[in-house]
Amino acid sequence: MGAIILGAISLGTLWAIMTLGVYITYKILDIADLTVEGSIATGAAVAAHFIVGGMNPWLATGIAILAGMLAGLATGLLHTKLRIPPLLAGILTMIALYSINLRIMGKSNIPLLRTNTVYTGVATAFGIADKNLSILIVGLICAFLVSVFVYWFFGTEIGSAVRATGSNPQMARAQGINTSTTINIGLVISNGLVAFSGALIAQNQSFADVQMGTGSIVIGLASLIIGEVLFAMKTNSFKRVILAVCLGAILYRVIIALVLKAGMNPNDLKLFTAITVAVCLALPVGREYFMTVTKSLKRGEK
Amino acid sequence: MLKIDSVFKTFNPGTINENRVLNGISLHLEEGDFVTVIGGNGAGKSTMLNSVAGVFPVDFGTITIDGKDVTKLSEYKRASLIGRVFQDPMTGTAASMNIEDNLALAFRRGRKRTLRWGITAKERKEYRALLASLGLGLETRLSDKVGLLSGGQRQALTLLMATLVKPKILLLDEHTAALDPKTAAKVLEISDRIIKQDNLTAIMVTHNMRDAIAHGNRLIMMNKGQIILDIKGEEKNSLTVEQLLGKFAEAAGEEFTSDSAILG
Question: Which of B79, B96, B145 sits opposite A175 (nearest CB)?
Answer without folding.
Answer: B79
